[in-house]
Amino acid sequence: MSWYYQKGQEQAGPVDEKEVLRLASTGEINDLTLVWKEGMSGWKSYVEVKDTFDSSDGNSIQSSQGEMVTCSVSGKSVPKREAIELNGRWVSAEHKNEALERIKSGVGLDEGIYNYIGFWWRVLARLVDGIITSIVSYALMFLLAIPFGVAGFASNLIGQSSDASAGTVGIYFIIQLVCSLGIPMAYEVFLIGKFGATIGKKLIGAKVIRSDGSKLTYMRAFGRYWGIMLSGIILYIGYIMVAFDREKRGLHDKLCDTLVVRNN
User: Tell me: the pLDDT tens digits for 162-173?
Assistant: First the structure.
């Protein structure tokens, strides 16, 4: 049976079960990697389907690697002999220092493989982004107001009709609307799609990712922006959800399958 799996933002495959097990043993496929084969209703994470694989196909692989465990920091499968146990969770030697820092800071390893950003930190990031986009929007509107102001003054000076002045005001109103809506949207979509974080999120050491750890596409960042608008329209309930969700997800995160995590 041929399997397909998500590799970054692309689909890889087809590969057989033995190859899937080999990729899992090397960490290229981890428990959160999305996989699919013909007959499945949709893509599922590897951890949901790995028990269905024929264990005999992986015997030779596992015997050479030894018993495999999942690193609580990276989510990758690693040989047990190359991992250590901390607070009842397995951590690869590569991520030992990071795990110790998380335990020292009180975050622990029981919240999942990611260090989620809490409600108040996200409020701070949103305030910073709001200040930045407001400054840019108002500055641009001010600059555009100068030629329209001159045009309006000239119309009055030469005695043109009030309809011309009204038309000038109407055009400037449209420009104001475009600036106030378009600049925040462009800011959010470009920075999230390009760098995975806005300036506000970078300041608090956060980034936005998919639930499988992959980077957001510009299209998904665009959809998430409108999800953010929806979270605010419904009396900010979509934002408040962050404070009560185990993975610190707002409504927009749930709609777009995103997480806001510490940028390690």
Answer: 554 555 666 767
HEC sequence for 49-82: HHHHCCHHHHHHHHHHHCCEEECCCCCCEEEHHH
Sheet holding 3-7, edge to edge: 10-15, 3-7, 34-37, 44-45
208, 259 Cβ separation under 8 angstroms: yes
* CA pair distance 134, 157, nearest whole angstrom: 34
Q: How many C-beta atoms lie closer than 10 Å to residue 1's C-beta?
A: 12
Q: DSSP letters of 84-120?
A: EEETTEEEEGGGHHHHHHHHHTT--STT-SS-B--HH
Q: Could you read off the pLDDT of 88-97 as tens digits, one per residue?
A: 677 777 777 7
Pairing between β-strand 44-45 and β-strand 34-37 as defined by DSSP bridges: antiparallel
Chain centre to alpha carbon of residue 104: 26
d(CA 205, CA 121): 10
Task: Quote the pTM value.
Answer: 0.54
List 85's β-bridge partners, or say none.
90
pLDDT value at residue 31: 74
The DSSP output letter for 28 is S
* Residues of the chain below pLDDT 50: 56-65, 153, 157-158, 161, 164
Alpha-carbon distance of 54 to 62, in angstroms, equals 13
Q: HSE, CB side, 13 Å, CA atoms: give it for residue 212.
A: 22
Q: What 3-state class would DSSP assign to 10? A: strand
pLDDT score at 109? 54
**Distance between CA atoms of 238 and 248, rounded to whole angstroms?**
11
Q: Under DSSP, is residue 39 helix (H, G, I), strand (E, B) or coil?
A: coil
